[in-house]
Write a structure and sequence with these properties.
By secondary structure, this protein is an all-alpha fold. The protein has a single domain, classed as Up-down Bundle (Amino acid/polyamine transporter I), CATH 1.20.1740.10. 70% of the residues lie in helices and 0% in strands. The protein has 18 helices and no strands. The two termini are 48 Å apart.
């Protein structure tokens, strides 16, 4: 089937990834990373960008070679069996659901400044319902809305950077020159390497969503040339925007003045009597997070479809049209459940949700790299293209070890140990569900096989192989044994 369009360019693919990635996890969650590592969080963002670079190249290399529905979930299933496809698909879906539940809390936190009479759970529920309903409109209408929202949030970051530079250099009217400001009183490495390690989970979570490049790689006219360029643009763009924002932020406000339930950018601008800019930034941040939730819901519905089509989900969730209505609605209900589950916990709701969701995403990224390692070992370079992942296989192992290290360093930051525990329980739960499902299915097949034998033997009916395609463990037929004896 030939495409009637020219396909996505490298810039378009990079912009799509940037629009999907930048959201509340950076605008609000970055406070946790800054408090953990201090100014050294800049190192964390650079290291995170390098890891993203390797994961993206690994995923896109497989996607370009074999554009399959379900992307990394399908690749993992082919490489390691149906059990891995089941676990990684459901763990990823659960991680995004938990992440978007936390994003709804972030939006509600910002909105509370204007609508203080509505509680966080009610406001978060309204946001999730709106996001779910908009996704039911379909990809065409949603993509137009998403493009506009993505442009707004990128402009928000650029706008903050420009305002911050004006304040630092003292060329913003009557305001005094700030210079190094609060950085003069900060220790650059307050917690040493442990602080950097403890911040890496939140840092990686701010990069979450970049895997959309792998999912969209088959939509380009020349994936072998366009995808590597798009990856470079995306990584350089993300790392550049994030680092520039942190560099501008740190002189404007002391780290001890930052609060987890408020945007650090808004607090920094308000501190220097730019309340109007802080209010405008709040509106833009709400738009940014809403955009991320829309894009995430788009992927959630399609992940459910991929799982159900492979028999890894309940049949009543199966969708037959272009829009996975049931998958979207199911994901919306799950988000509401994650939101209220968070509020029944005693403390640190936001960090718990981000940490448990972050574990799921990091687990998925480890599987992507492990799948790619096996893919390259068995198949070599992609057909008609160059090997895209630099330094293979050493880069693969370094990235895998780094991600595993980040997962187990979660307890280094207060409150993130809950996320590690929740993530391990989540993965173990899905492994157990798969094993139980497999056991029940095998017993059912054996039972059906036995019943069919009892039914046909008295009648002497010959059953062909095609009539019993659901059973793989049939005993040899008598007619087959006779043929072998005659031979």
């Amino acid at each position: 089937m030939k495409k009637n369009h020219k396909g996505l360019t490298a810039i378009q693919l990079a912009m799509m990834a940037l629009g999907t990635v930048v959201g509340g996890s950076f605008f609000l969650g970055s406070v946790v990373a800054i408090q953990a590592a201090g100014p050294a969080v800049l190192v964390s963002y650079i290291l995170g960008g390098i890891l993203v670079y390797y994961i993206l190249f690994a995923l896109s290399e497989m996607t370009v070679a074999y554009p399959e529905p379900g992307s990394f979930r399908t690749f993992a299933e082919k490489a390691f069996g149906s059990g891995m496809g089941f676990v990684v698909g459901w763990v990823y879906w659960t991680g995004i659901v938990l992440a978007m539940s936390s994003e709804s809390i972030a939006v509600s936190t910002f909105l509370r400044a204007w609508i203080p009479n509505i509680s966080l759970p009610v406001m978060g529920s309204i946001i999730i319902i709106v996001v779910t309903l908009l996704n039911l409109l379909g990809a065409d209408k949603l993509s137009k809305l998403e493009s506009g929202l993505a442009a707004i949030k990128l402009l928000a970051i650029v706008g903050f950077i420009v305002l911050g530079i004006l304040l630092i250099l003292g060329i913003s009217g009557d305001m005094p020159r700030i210079g190094m400001g609060a950085l003069n009183e900060e220790s650059w490495f307050p917690a040493g390497m442990l602080g950097i390690a403890g911040s890496m989970l939140i840092v990686m979570f701010t990069y979450a969503g970049f895997e959309i490049i792998g999912l969209a790689a088959s939509e380009t006219s020349d994936p072998h040339k366009i995808v590597p360029k798009a990856i470079t643009y995306t990584v350089v763009g993300l790392v550049g925007l994030y680092i520039a924002t942190i560099i501008v932020l740190l002189p404007l406000i002391p780290i001890n003045d930052l609060a987890e339930d408020k945007s650090p950018m808004v607090m920094a601008l308000t501190r220097w009597n730019l309340g109007w800019a802080g209010s405008a930034m709040n509106i833009i941040l709400i738009t940014a997070i809403f955009s991320t939730m829309l894009a995430a819901m788009f992927g959630l519905g399609r992940m459910i479809r991929s799982l159900v089509d492979e028999g890894h989900g309940p049949a009543w969730l199966k969708d037959r049209g272009d829009i996975p209505y049931k998958g979207i609605l199911f994901s919306g209900v799950a988000m509401l459940g994650g939101l209220f589950f968070g509020f029944v916990l005693p403390k640190r709701v936001y960090i718990f949700l981000v940490s448990s969701g972050g574990f799921s995403l990091l687990f998925t990224y480890v599987v992507i790299l492990a799948t790619h390692y096996k893919f390259r070992k068995e198949n070599g370079c992609p057909p008609k293209g160059k090997c895209q992942l630099p330094g293979y296989p050493f880069s693969s192992w370094i990235a895998i070890i780094s991600l595993v290290g980040i997962i187990f360093s979660m307890p280094l930051v207060e409150g993130q140990g809950y996320g590690l525990a929740a993530g391990i329980i989540l993965t173990t739960m899905y492994m157990a569900i798969y094993l139980i499902k497999k056991y029940i299915t095998q017993n059912r097949r054996q039972s059906n096989q036995g019943n069919n034998r009892k039914f046909v033997r008295p009648m002497g009916i010959h059953i062909t192989k095609t009539h019993m395609e659901t059973s793989d463990e049939l005993t040899p037929r008598k007619s087959d044994n006779k043929d072998k004896e005659e031979k």
